[in-house]
Amino acid sequence: MSMDAALTTNIIASTLMVLTYAYLYIQYKHSYLVKWLTAWIIHEVRIIFLEKAFIDQSSLYLGIMYGVLVFAHCLLLTAGTMELAGKKFSVIWLSGCILVLFFSVIGRLMGLPTEAYLLPGAIYIAFAYASTARAVSQINNGLGVWLTAGGFFLLGIHALDMPFLFQIRWFAPWGYLMDALLRSTVAIGIVLIYFEKLRVELAEKEKYYRLLADNATDVIYRYQLIRPVGFEYISPSVKKLTGYDPAEIKTLRNVMRIIHPADRGNFKKLIKPPIGLNDFTTLRVVHKNGDILWVEPKQNVIANSDGQPLAIEGIMRDITKRVLLEQDVARLDRLNIVGQMAANLAHEVRNPLTTVRGYLQLFGNKREFQHYKEQFTLLLDELDRTNHIITEYLALSKNKSIEMKKCNLNEIILTIHPLIKADAVSFNIETVLELGKIPNLYLDDKEIKQLILNFTRNAIEAMPSGGKLTITTTIDSKGTILSVADQGPGIPQQVLENLGKPFLTTKATGTGLGMAICYRIAHRHNAKLDINTGPAGTTINIRFETIN
């Protein structure tokens, strides 16, 4: 093989390495990529412009420049590889390089044999490559490690034979070819190590993000819009939200089962592009145990370069408590408005009504008006009904004073049970009391009686064909619970959503204030109302805080 062919091969190999590392640096911007890129540029410049001058030993200055480039290539290649391996590059290497280069220049000026002034540099390079090979071998056991470590080790051995063999004309081309092969092996090995390092880092990041997603309180999901269409990922927190494992709701059909029937149309819009992909809305889902929860999805569409949607990624947050709180606040705002009206209006209206009623009674008892007796009775009944409505208005007054004292809820229920039973019997309804052992509570007994009577009358009216009315008291870790359950047809959804709104009624003769009064009484007692309704009946739970 000719020397020109060997050098050309070396230049081609170096050019490929320069292009490879330039591409890697443009993509990833790591500092050790800069060191490798610079090292291979220096190596290529040295071969193109100074290699023949070194072989011919024609110029001292070109020889010094050649030596500087050799050591620079060696140091940068070693420094970059050490950085990749996580090892510290010591300044001793730079000091040793300067010292060896100085010795080589002095040796040449003194006329020492070529082997004598080149050997210290060869030993230095061999030691540097051997140290780098040792550092690389400790990274892992992949192919890239073995190629790089082996290549550096063989380059070190090859550096030791250079002072003795490069002047042998028939061997020199093979030496350069071997050098190109070993350096290419090192470069390929480094690329393999680098990509293996990237793969491990990506796997660690994926593991980290997967851990975050799996432990997030919000539900994180990815829905694929192209085949195979379906949920590619749903975080485990969906079980806490819905009661279902992620594997149980991977398909759209299974997901639709847990979406509230009234919200399925909105949900379909969210997952069918392009409508609604970035909408921010609320949905209701049905828990495995039958509870209805409010959720708030926020999602983004993932598209390809042509703008075609590929997938939807998003989170779904449980906002049930927030929605219920907003409903309570809205309900209380409405009650406050009515309460203010009641406080101002009731007293103004009640006084003239009392006067009117008194005169009607007076005139009704006069002999000359006896043939109008029925009309007077009707007028008095209507006035009494008006007075009753005003009384209900007053019950909504925000500033109504209440007398809180230690009471036993069971005793209050037993006191009014005869009234409840009398109402129930006329509708062929059985009343059942399931009164547990409960602690005393701070209550206004008059208001609690009104609360219970309102709920029981609603329950009785919900069962015109008969049934069972059950009043229960229990205690749990959160407080004392009063429950009123009926076997009626349940409360319609549109009524349930507006329950407690003043003047909302489904009765022909109702005022629409009964439930509003109950919510106001519960609020004054710092109690929480919870309503469970369905085709089998309705249960109203009132939770009172236990006295500490």
Automatic annotation (TrEMBL):
<keyword id="KW-0812">Transmembrane</keyword>
<feature type="transmembrane region" description="Helical">
    <location>
        <begin position="117"/>
        <end position="136"/>
    </location>
</feature>
<dbReference type="InterPro" id="IPR036890">
    <property type="entry name" value="HATPase_C_sf"/>
</dbReference>
<keyword id="KW-0902">Two-component regulatory system</keyword>
<keyword id="KW-0418">Kinase</keyword>
<keyword id="KW-0472">Membrane</keyword>
<keyword id="KW-0067">ATP-binding</keyword>
<keyword id="KW-0547">Nucleotide-binding</keyword>
<dbReference type="InterPro" id="IPR001610">
    <property type="entry name" value="PAC"/>
</dbReference>
<dbReference type="Pfam" id="PF02518">
    <property type="entry name" value="HATPase_c"/>
</dbReference>
<dbReference type="InterPro" id="IPR035965">
    <property type="entry name" value="PAS-like_dom_sf"/>
</dbReference>
<dbReference type="Pfam" id="PF00512">
    <property type="entry name" value="HisKA"/>
</dbReference>
<feature type="domain" description="Histidine kinase">
    <location>
        <begin position="344"/>
        <end position="548"/>
    </location>
</feature>
<dbReference type="InterPro" id="IPR013655">
    <property type="entry name" value="PAS_fold_3"/>
</dbReference>
<dbReference type="InterPro" id="IPR003661">
    <property type="entry name" value="HisK_dim/P_dom"/>
</dbReference>
<keyword id="KW-0597">Phosphoprotein</keyword>
<feature type="domain" description="PAC">
    <location>
        <begin position="279"/>
        <end position="331"/>
    </location>
</feature>
<feature type="transmembrane region" description="Helical">
    <location>
        <begin position="91"/>
        <end position="111"/>
    </location>
</feature>
<keyword id="KW-1133">Transmembrane helix</keyword>
<feature type="domain" description="PAS">
    <location>
        <begin position="205"/>
        <end position="272"/>
    </location>
</feature>
<dbReference type="Pfam" id="PF08447">
    <property type="entry name" value="PAS_3"/>
</dbReference>
<dbReference type="GO" id="GO:0000155">
    <property type="term" value="F:phosphorelay sensor kinase activity"/>
</dbReference>
<dbReference type="InterPro" id="IPR000014">
    <property type="entry name" value="PAS"/>
</dbReference>
<dbReference type="GO" id="GO:0005524">
    <property type="term" value="F:ATP binding"/>
</dbReference>
<feature type="transmembrane region" description="Helical">
    <location>
        <begin position="60"/>
        <end position="79"/>
    </location>
</feature>
<feature type="transmembrane region" description="Helical">
    <location>
        <begin position="143"/>
        <end position="168"/>
    </location>
</feature>
<dbReference type="InterPro" id="IPR000700">
    <property type="entry name" value="PAS-assoc_C"/>
</dbReference>
<dbReference type="InterPro" id="IPR004358">
    <property type="entry name" value="Sig_transdc_His_kin-like_C"/>
</dbReference>
<feature type="transmembrane region" description="Helical">
    <location>
        <begin position="6"/>
        <end position="26"/>
    </location>
</feature>
<dbReference type="InterPro" id="IPR005467">
    <property type="entry name" value="His_kinase_dom"/>
</dbReference>
<keyword id="KW-0808">Transferase</keyword>
<dbReference type="InterPro" id="IPR036097">
    <property type="entry name" value="HisK_dim/P_sf"/>
</dbReference>
<dbReference type="InterPro" id="IPR003594">
    <property type="entry name" value="HATPase_dom"/>
</dbReference>
<protein>
    <recommendedName>
        <fullName>histidine kinase</fullName>
        <ecNumber>2.7.13.3</ecNumber>
    </recommendedName>
</protein>
